[in-house]
Design brief:
With 276 residues, the protein is α/β, with parallel strands linked by helices. It is built from nine helices and 13 strands. Helix content is 43%, strand content 25%. It is globular and about 50 Å long. It has a six-stranded mixed beta sheet, with helices on both faces. Strands 4-3-2-7-8 form a five-stranded mixed beta sheet, sandwiched between helices. The chain folds into two domains: 2-130 and 259-268, Nucleotidyltransferase, domain 5, CATH 3.30.420; 135-258, Nucleotidyltransferase, domain 5, CATH 3.30.420.40.
Amino acid sequence: MIIEKPILNEFNRLVENGICRRFEGPLKCGVDLGTANIVLAVVDKDNKPVAGATYYSSVVKDGIVVDYIGAIKIVKNLKAQLEQALGCELLYGSCAIPPGILSGNVRVIANVVESAGFEVTKVVDEPTAAATVLDIQDGGVVDVGGGTTGISILKDGKVVYVADEPTGGTHMTLVLSGYYKVPYSEAEEIKKNTAKQDDVFPIIKPVVSKMATIVRGFIEGKDVSAIYLVGGASCFDDFEAVFEKETGVPCYKANHPLLVTPLGIAMHCEIPEGAE
């Protein structure tokens, strides 16, 4: 089942059309260093989307920055792009990490955002950021990224459990590359082509089933009444149906799942007291 959030439709409109919304006061930014996409989201003090930009990249692998200089360059360019469109400097930012990541990698991710010119005021885990956008108080939020599948279990709005495994969209692409006998880059384009979904999904379905099995293990013995799916790798129409069958728990997917987490990251950004 799809959860329709108007705020995601608005953010998608801004990103796709490269436009900005009028705003007042200081802006909050969120940087999502994904395995397949880097997304910069900008919201106002009331957490309404103002602007956004994405860049396809491979500078992060399984939640770890493997090209530090390249990551800084991309974020810096996205920042400059939106600053020009907005007519102001973007000062404050937050970033996110997959759940369970080592503390050293947390610092690296924050360093990338700081080196791109932001003052980092908050670091949040990815599924928690997504839960903010979806207004979830209870349940499991599963962020299916390019390199990892992470989950946060929430009770009364508080995170009580987090976990992460290195299986994601990258593994789907590898399967397609082997099936079609084409280079990885070509397989990635096949995966993202919505017109080919009916052909592609049966091929990558075993990977999706593996992700769901991982999540089933995470939630075993825990009181999880619903699972909410976000992340670009969950875009396939039948994705949530596979998860629901494997986990035995009702599964819901947000509209524009790629944009949920970056928008939530921006919402978690904190403006220093007295900033204008």
